[in-house]
Amino acid sequence: MSEQKFKSGFVSIIGRPNVGKSTFLNRVIGQKIAIMSDKPQTTRNKIQGVYTDNDSQVIFIDTPGIHKPKHKLGDFMMKVAQNTLREVDLVLFMMNVEQGFGRGDEFIIERLKETNTPVFLVMNKIDQIHPDELFPLIEQYKELYDFKEIIPISALEGNNVDTLLEQVKRYVPEGPQYYPADQVTDHPERFIISELIREKALHLTREEIPHSIAVAIEAIERREGGNAVYVSATVVVERSSQKGIIIGKQGKMLKEIGKRARVDIENLLGSKVFLELWVKVQKDWRNRSTHLRDFGFRA
Ligand code: GDP
Ligand code: K
Ligand code: MG
C-alpha cells in the first residue's frame, strides 16, 4: 500500500468588491470569521481561514480588494494584496456572474500576469442566472487569461463548492499541518471582535459612513468569579457629523450596533458578553500611518 502524504498550502481569494469572497471563505470554513456586507471594501485586512481534513490543510486568505489606491489605507491594501499573490500556492480569482466582466477585473488580471502562481477562475452567484447565460461568460473569460480551472459556484447556497475544494487540494503541495485541526483562523479574537462591531455599524448606516470607520478594542477581560466577558471598544470616525450618526437619536443607533455585535461576540467566545461602546472623532485617520497601526493594519 502506498502511503498518501499530507498536503498543505496557501490559497488567496481575490476579486472585485462584493463578488462573494468572504461568503465563500465562511462556507468553506463552516464558521463566521470574515465579515460580510453588501458594501464594498468590507474586508480590509487579510483574513486567514484554515480548512483541515484527514489528508490536507488549506489556509485561505481573503485578500482586501485590489483596486487603484486613493489614499494611504488604499495603498496599504494594495501592497498586502500584491505580496499575497506571489506568496501563495494558488489564486482563486472570483467574479460575479450577475455582473459579468468589468474594468475592475481588467486591473486584477494585469496584476495576475505579473506572477507565476496558478489561477482558478471562480464564477460565483450561479444561483442568480440561467445556466445558458454561463457559457458565453466562460468563453469571454477564457480569452483573458490562462486559468488552470474554471469553476462555477454559489457560495451562498453551497452549489459546487465541494468540487472547487477538491480541485484546490490538487494544487496544494505536500507539506506539514501548520495549525491544529480545530483552529479555523489565525487572527486574534481581538481583531475578529473589532470586525464584528464594524460590520454592524456598516449594516446600520448609509453611504458616507463605511470608509470613515474603524474600531479599536480597548479591553477584553474575563471578569473574576463569573463566566462573562467584558469588552470595551471605540468606534472611530473622521468627522463629528459622523459621530452624531453613529450615536443616533438618544443613543439609539449605538445601542443597536452594540446589541447586534454582542450576539455575534457571544457566539464567537461561547460566553456571556458585556459590550461597552464608545465613539471618538479622529480626523483623517486613514492618512496617518501611526493610526493605521493602532487599528491593527500591518504591512
Ligand atoms: P466580498 O466583498 O467579495 O467579500 O463579498 P461578500 O462575501 O461580502 O458578499 C457580498 C454580497 O454578495 C453579500 O450580500 C452576499 O450575501 C452576496 N453573495 C455572496 N455569494 C453569493 C452567491 O453565491 N449568491 C448570491 N445570490 N449572493 C451571494
Ligand atoms: K463586501
Ligand atoms: Mg469580503
Automatic annotation (TrEMBL):
Signal peptide: none annotated. One of its GO terms (cellular component) is plasma membrane. CDD domains: Era, KH-II_Era. Residues 124-127 are annotated as: G4. GTP binds at residues 15-22, 62-66, 124-127. Keywords: Cell membrane, Cytoplasm, GTP-binding, Membrane, Nucleotide-binding, Ribosome biogenesis, RNA-binding, rRNA-binding. It is a peripheral membrane protein. Residues 41-45 are annotated as: G2. It is found in: Cytoplasm; Cell membrane. One of its GO terms (biological process) is ribosomal small subunit assembly. The keyword RNA-binding applies. PANTHER family: GTPASE ERA, GTPASE ERA, MITOCHONDRIAL. An essential GTPase that binds both GDP and GTP, with rapid nucleotide exchange. Plays a role in 16S rRNA processing and 30S ribosomal subunit biogenesis and possibly also in cell cycle regulation and energy metabolism. Monomer. Belongs to the TRAFAC class TrmE-Era-EngA-EngB-Septin-like GTPase superfamily. Era GTPase family. This is GTPase Era. It comes from Priestia filamentosa.
